[in-house]
Amino acid sequence: MLFGSGAGALHLCSLLVLFAVHSVNAKVAADRPQIRSSAPPRAGAGWDRPRKADDESAESAGSVHPPPPPTGTTIVGAPASEVELDHEVEPVIRHSTPTHRILAIYTGGTLGMVKKDGTWAPPERRGTLAKLIDSMSEFHDDGMPDLDMIEYEPLLDSSNIGPSDWVALAKTIAKHYYDYDGFVVIHGTDTMAYTASALSFMLEGLGKAVVITGSIIALREPFNDARRNLIASIMFASQLDLAEVCVFFNDKLLRGNRAIKSENAGLDAFSSPNYPILASIGASGISCHNRHQWLPPPVCRLRLHTNLDARVLVLRLTPGFDDSTIAAMVTHASQLRALVLSLYGTGNGPSHKSDFMDAIAEAIRKDILVVVVTQCPKGTVSLDTYEVGRRLLEIGVVSASDMTHEACVTKIAYLCGRGLTGAMLRSAMGENLRGELTGRAERAAVVAVDKDMRL
């Protein structure tokens, strides 16, 4: 009885979320034009439509005319061959009078797993998750949007997901950008925060919601967190004024590049220590009291960046470490682009160890970016607080401010992939590009650190 009542409570909570988000969507839809009608998919109106010839002169008269895209950048709306992919789109849910249309991208993870020989494993038959979703009454509610799905083949354990997979995901979103109102990425939890951070940088000028979710318990289990996570993510993805990459888990919507996995087994597995949650759900429905924290609408069309330079090493220091190892690494790692040091407190390190300080100085001399993050889950790096941090600052070490480790390493890969080096790279690391850090000017829109380079 206890197990049954828990499942019933979770089911009731899912329906409350469905009702509450539907109410929010109805209000937003009343205030803003619909992106999609019952006609075939088309480009959205206004700033997010494909560029036409008469747009060129209009943009050149304003102040937000971007430079020609560098190598590895695609302005979405360009010929489809530039972002061509093989993934097949499968319709899952259809309503007679749809108001929104969402694309779910199923990469793998616990949410869609099945029992096999007593353990959980990815389903062997394609379309298994889509059929399971179609069998659930909540997804056919009038308040739910139409849902299509792309299923990866093979499905990926998230511990195997890396930069090439982030590129594939970003290309998929870009390819279908004008056909859907929002996107849901179903993903394993282990590297979810890395994927969310990477996508936030790669999708410049994102004007729609990309919500990444997964679960601790598979959707097939009678009692699970997958049902609520998936329902809420789909509904949040249909929010017309949500224009950023997010993570939804348990009862919270988080900015993607501020999220970390803070538990490995609890249902409340993700948190955002240094930034307020964007929205939450509960028995009373949805709370959007932090709507003012959402990123503003973009000032440019979607630009897809696919060059990532992942030659980044993260080193967590412990008391009494062998600093000769760092010196050897700096000397012999000829291809290393960046070294991320996870230091104590506000960014303090052993400044009395001359070999360590000499190794860091040598790395900077070799044009290796050295960035300091804090080992504390909550808080910010402040290298000028103590003398030991100030010495690092004086030799050219860069502060990661309050960025997560995940945001820091993916931002470095993105900026190095854009071709930034030296002082420009160090300056860009301190700029708030996608809401990933609390910037000096508190700007969460796209910023330029050089008049000829939009980041």
Task: Give a structural overview.
The structure is a single chain. The relative contact order is 0.12. The protein has 455 residues and is α/β, with parallel strands linked by helices. It has helices spanning 2-31, 53-60, 128-134, 163-175, 192-202, 226-237, 323-332, 354-365, 387-394, 405-417, 422-429; strands spanning 73-75, 89-93, 101-106, 114-116, 119-121, 146-151, 182-186, 203-204, 209-213, 245-249, 252-255, 260-261, 270-271, 279-282, 285-287, 303-305, 312-316, 338-343, 369-374, 398-399, 448-450, 453-454. Helix 1 packs parallel to helix 6, helix 5 (192-202) runs parallel beside helix 10 and helix 7 (323-332) packs parallel to helix 8 (354-365). It has a nine-stranded mixed beta sheet, sandwiched between helices. The chain has two domains: 2-36 and 55-305, L-asparaginase, N-terminal domain (Rossmann fold); 312-454, Rossmann fold. It contains eleven helices and 22 strands.
Provide key terms for this protein.
Rossmann fold, single chain, elongated, alpha/beta, 455 residues, 2 domains, disordered N terminus, four-stranded parallel beta sheet
Give a quick rundown of the structure.
The chain is of the alpha/beta class. The protein has eleven helices and 22 strands.
